[in-house]
Amino acid sequence: MIRVEHVTVEGEGRKILDDVSFQVKSGETKVVLGPSGAGKSSLLKIILGLWKPTAGAVFIDGMEITHLSERALNPIRRRTAMVFQGNALFDSLTVAENVGYFLQEHSTMSAAEIYERVEDCLQFVNLPDTMNLLPEEISGGMKKRVAIARAIAFHPEIILYDEPTTGLDPINAKTITELIIKLKQERHATSIIVTHILRDAFAVGDSLAVMDNGNIVFDGSPEELLACELPFIQNFLSEIREEARLILHEQR
Questions:
Q1: Domain coverage including residue 198
Q2: Beta strands 80-83 and 55-60: pairing type?
């Protein structure tokens, strides 16, 4: 579904991404881990076509998208949704208007069809009674769920998440990870999740890639990550190793 091949991005006199390669199979949830500044969010911008790499290529379903024009990228972007770290909701619009915004702007659906789709998306994230509320009237965890509802309004095949649980309390974070799993199970979404929160990564990831200084230093299954003996990985996992084992045991 998604293939990144030897992508390098240079900026401000340094390599933000350095010869990065990985792939995500259809229906898979890939988690990209690493400390702040490792280059994780830059990968999402490359996959969305917001940035052009200095070298390398990105393929979606076998089609190279790296050098496509904005117009040629539009059909690809309609298949792809992004859940931003800061939610990116419009403060002056209601929850329903936020969820339906891009449908109104970029679809031929009627007002009634959009209303029905918005209802369906908010029901999916368990927020059916928030349609007429403003973002300032709901909690941080609810805002994240609204952002997910908006992301799935186009029924995307690919969903990209940038730090989806950062800043949330454990209960709300668990709700978001459960939604990510639900989207995979019920809508067969192919997902890439960028995070530095190890608990969430082990809870949702089919495969995990670990980045450091713009490089991917590990790419494999959660079990393989736990068994990895690289010093950087050992240090990275030091505080969560036993909890990660319990999470994987419960899932299996």
A1: 1-79+158-163+188-252
A2: unpaired
d(CA 64, CA 139): 40
Q: How far apart are the first and last CA of the chain?
A: 25
User: pLDDT for 27-85, tens place per residue?
Assistant: 999 999 988 878 888 999 999 988 999 999 999 999 999 988 888 888 888 899 999 99
Q: Are residues 89 and 65 in the same domain?
A: no
Please give the single-letter amino acid code of residue 243.
E
Determine the Cα–Cα distance for residues 171 and 230; give it in Å rounded to an integer: 33
The set of long-range contacts for 133-138, using a CB threshold of 8 Å and a minimum separation of 24, is 133/94, 133/95, 134/91, 134/92, 134/93, 134/94, 134/95, 135/87, 135/89, 135/90, 135/91, 135/93, 135/95, 135/98, 136/91, 138/95
Looking at the chain, list the stretches that DSSP marks H as alpha helix, in order from N- to C-terminal side.
40-48, 70-78, 95-106, 111-124, 140-151, 170-187, 198-204, 222-227, 231-236, 241-251
Specify if 14 maps to a domain: yes
Same domain for 88 and 65: no
Domain limit, last residue, from 136, 155, 174: 155
Burial class (CB in 10 A: 0-12, 13-18, 19+), 57: middle
